[in-house]
Amino acid sequence: MPQPSPQITTFSSVHSAGIQVSLSRFKNAWFITFPRAYGMVAYNGQRIHSRLNVAEPGTRKNTFYFNTDWSIEGPVFHPFNVLSESEPVVVRPTGRKRMEKKAGSDEEVECVEFEVVIPEEGLLKQCYYCLYWEELGSPRFDRCGVNEDYYWCRQCQARGKPIAFLSSMFRRDTVLPSYGDWETGRKKDNLYR
Ligand SMILES: [Zn+2]
């Protein structure tokens, strides 16, 4: 019998109105993401709720200083509250704090360091080529290469890298709505940006 693939770790808190969320990472940048579509707040092309830190290359990947440009006009809930009181626990404060420039501004803010306590397999992945997101209950994405932070969906994997790359030229960092989004005119979000 093949082993079932490891599941995406989902969590919620009293602050998230019962909505299950997940964590995602690219290199040193951390994000709260939606592991499935939820009406208007998360659809297939857009699953990032908030970015959690200002990425710092070369540091440990399982810790981050919470510093977000998420604003009160953002969707549904404050990321700090959800992280701090999540069920199950997904991050814990290390006790370290430091001053950083607030994301998207010159103002300084005190930033609390968190350590992520869930395994890499629990993170929600996005396809580097077509920007499609994993979905709860669907087959997990594989890494594009050994020791890489890049993942690809089953469809892009089946096409192979040269074709996946060509088709991504038109779909990544799109100015025009990308393929599949013509009806809604929505832009896809991009963990890898
Ligand atoms: Zn793909």
Descriptive notes:
The chain is α+β, with helices and mostly antiparallel strands and 193 residues long. It has helices spanning 79-84, 154-159, 161-169; strands at residues 22-26, 29-33, 48-51, 63-65, 91-101, 108-116, 142-143, 151-152. The chain has one domain (14-169). It is built from three helices and eight strands. Strand 7 (142-143) and strand 8 (151-152) form a beta hairpin. The chain is globular. It starts with 21 loop residues before the first strand and ends in a 24-residue tail after the last helix. Mean pLDDT is 84; it is low at 173-183. The protein binds zinc ion. Zinc ion binds at residues 127, 129-130, 132, 152-153, 155-156.
User: Low-confidence parts, pLDDT < 50 over ≥5 residues?
Assistant: 173-183
Strand content: 15-25%
Number of strands: 8
- What class, by secondary structure content? alpha+beta
Query: Strand order across the biggest sheet?
Result: 1-2-3
Approximate helicity band: 10-25%
Rg for CA atoms: 17 Å
Count up the domains.
Answer: 1
What is the chain-wise order of helices and strands?
Answer: EEEEHEEEEHH
Distance between the termini: 39 Å
**Mean pLDDT across residues:** 84
Count of DSSP helices?
3
Task: State the shape.
Answer: globular
* Largest sheet descriptor: 3 strands, antiparallel
Ions, cofactors and other ligands present here are: zinc ion
State the main characteristics.
binds zinc ion, 3 helices, 3-stranded antiparallel beta sheet, alpha+beta, 193 residues, globular, 21% strand
Q: What is this structure, in a nutshell?
A:
It is built from three helices and eight strands; from the N terminus they run E-E-E-E-H-E-E-E-E-H-H. It has 193 residues and is an alpha+beta fold.
